[in-house]
Write a structure and sequence with these properties.
single chain; 134 residues; mainly alpha; 75% helix
Length: 134
Amino acid sequence: MTLHRVRHTYDPARPFVPWLRAVSQRRAIDAMRSHGRHRTREVHAPLVYESQPDPAATAAQELERCDEAHDLNAAVAELPEGQHQAVEELALRERSLEEAAASTGRTAGALKVNLHRALKALRARLAKGDGNDA
């Protein structure tokens, strides 16, 4: 393919073999450079894995996650009924708008509005809670 791409550079008045040698040498140099770039980014170092912390959650992280889940559940429970239903159906049960509308008897547009308002209220409540804990 390389020869086809650079054939326009060949001058028929000059010898063919030196032109071919120059093209193939330059192509080989390009391949070595590319291989060298890959080797500098990819390092085989199995001992590095031993020095990394375990990705499993520690007891403190698990406790914090449980506290955050409790705070979120409490905040969702305090939402007005329409917003609570929208969060429950769309976010927690992961239903589609059509499924949620059929089960709640509300329109898809009303569910979208309620979900948007609920998320805004939850963000405000949880952000305020973060400021009080510090």
